[in-house]
Amino acid sequence: xxxxxxxxxxxxxxxxxxxxxxxxxxxxxxxxxxxxxxxxxxxxxxxxxxxxxxxxxxxxxxxxxxxxxxxxxxxxxxxxxxxxxxxxxxxxxxxxxxxxxxxxxxxxxxxxxxxxxxxxxxxxxxxxxxxxxxxxxxxxxxxxxxxxxxxxxxxxxxxxxxxxxxxxxxxxxxxxxxxxxxxxxxxxxxxxxxxxxxxxxxxxxxxxxxxxxx
Amino acid sequence: xxxxxxxxxxxxxxxxxxxxxxxxxxxxxxxxxxxxxxxxxxxxxxxxxxxxxxxxxxxxxxxxxxxxxxxxxxxxxxxxxxxxxxxxxxxxxxx
Lengths: 214, 95
What we know:
The complex is a heterodimer of chains A (about 210) and B (about 100). Chain A has helices spanning about 5-20, 30-50, 65-105, 110-135, 145-160, 165-180, 185-210. With about 210 residues, chain A is mostly helical. Chain B has one domain: Arc Repressor Mutant, subunit A (Orthogonal Bundle). With about 100 residues, chain B is α+β, with helices and mostly antiparallel strands. Classes of the chains: A mainly alpha (about 210), B alpha+beta (about 100).
């Protein structure tokens, strides 16, 4: 038996075990693409429903600035965004289950749990922060920038428990969130870029890099 | 040759146990079994062999009524495994 091949094999096994026990790598790039498409559809609905003109600045005061219509718009956005979120979660779960089966990785393993919890904490914090910002202080224009920034930070945290590449998406979301905060009023536009376009670009990149040939 | 491969890590299961524990603080029996894709008996016997060498520490406790065994790598275990890795590396360099 070729001993150096045996040693290489041992090293490969060690590496696989270290990665498999700490990183969850079965997220499919296709889920990113689908999440992005759902976000674009959601944003498209908002543009049609609120009769907005490009680039949708000050969208929350466009129809008229009285409080009832503002809260109606907010309700519309919450329902719209929740539908986008639910559709994205359902589709990516299905795709991940499929991919994990192909990889022979268990779905709900240690790595997945760790990824989930480390992503969920900053994400929930951001969600609650946005709700408080609106319902207690009425800062509606801060919601899109805050969503982007907290989502970016959540991804950055999650990148330690999954593919390193997520880090690039995370940084892009954070930078975009800061821009959005600088240009308050263009939230919907930035939101559409961050959750729509960036997800599609990132998803396609991951799919090409890891899945196309398998 | 100074660094020799450690015979204790020759089996794939043991190698897997050690690799997993090197990068995780504490791992329980079922998780390890799932990660290594092996049987109860196989894992238990390799784990206890590593334990008797002083490379693993075993924690037994009850979660509700179920017994739960988890493992941690010891200082000696970490040292031995690192030496094993160095030896592997050296062998590959000098081939």
